[in-house]
Amino acid sequence: MFHGSMVALVTPMNPDGAIDEDSLQRLVDFHIENHTDAIVVAGTTGESATLDEDEHCHLIRLSVEIAAGRIPIIAGTGANSTREAIDLTRCAMDAGVDACLLVTPYYNKPTQEGLYRHFRTVAEAVPVPQILYNVPGRTACDMLPETVERLARVSNIVGIKEATGDMNRAREILERCGERLDLYSGDDATAMELILLGGKGNVSVTANVAPAAMRDLCAVALTGDRERATVINQPLESLHQALFVESNPIPVKWALYEMGMIPAGIRLPMTPLAEQFHDTVRQALKQAGVLT
Q1: Tell me, what's the pLDDT at 1?
Q2: Catalytic pick among 161, 200, 253, 257
């Protein structure tokens, strides 16, 4: 349903933590100008865990309003409460999003049957296209390929963002689900390989700061041209790593601040990037051609 480079957008904030709506407008326009294929708002990179429900819905509505149909908007609406996930997903659908992205429930560690029932219940309650999101490194919850296969039979579950970086896992999902479910990378460092394997795109942190290069990388990888994709990816490799020297979105928000795109705001318990990593991120931005 969605192909290519989908930016996992940061939520720009003022130093007091309030959402900076002017900077959000700037970021959306920046991605449209650089031909990003879709924008994911209110996800992990968007600090969804520290947005209250009113802010979460407001951010989604505002993003749809700013985009004005110029680029698809995918809203992060996952929660570790099924009822809350339904409420957020319904809010996003009413706002006019193109799809929702739902992370596996975190902290409460459901069984595979619990995961199946959770996602099926949300999908049956809200008829918007929905993309599953598996990121066990952050949630302490791993949705296995056999569960993904069961969920692929639900008509409005259209894709999965698989962020393990495990190509064997990706291959198994593709074999089990075929054309019933689109597979997306959630790991910039291995995104090229996943797309060449048969994935349909990448939900990208790196695209926040290098949108044109990530768009080109995904587009070329989708054609199956490994050689050209490798040439595009090579200058980005250090950036893929540097944007995770501390927990996401700490480094990428600092990078965007360094680029003059957003204020320095970030919400506790996240903290500004430690000074010892400034040069690491700055050099990676220069290698990628983002900074001179």
Answers
A1: 78
A2: 161
Q: Which residues of the chain have pLDDT under 50?
A: none
Give the model confidence (pLDDT) of 83-115 as tens digits. 999 999 999 999 999 999 999 999 999 999 999
Q: Which residue has the tokens 């069961």?
A: 150
Q: Examine the residue annotation and report whether 257 is marked as an active-site residue of this protein.
A: no
Instruction: Name all domains of the chain by residue range, CATH numbers in brackets.
Output: 4-223 (3.20.20.70)
Catalytic-labelled residue, pool 106, 107, 109, 133 = 133
Decide if 109 is catalytic.
no
Q: Which two tokens stand for residue 81?
A: 């409460």
**Among 42, 124, 50, residue whose Cα is nearest residue 88:** 42
Whether 204 and 8 have beta carbons less than 8 Å apart is answered as yes
Q: How far apart are CA 274 and CA 290, in angstroms?
A: 21
Query: Which amino acid, residue 1?
Result: M
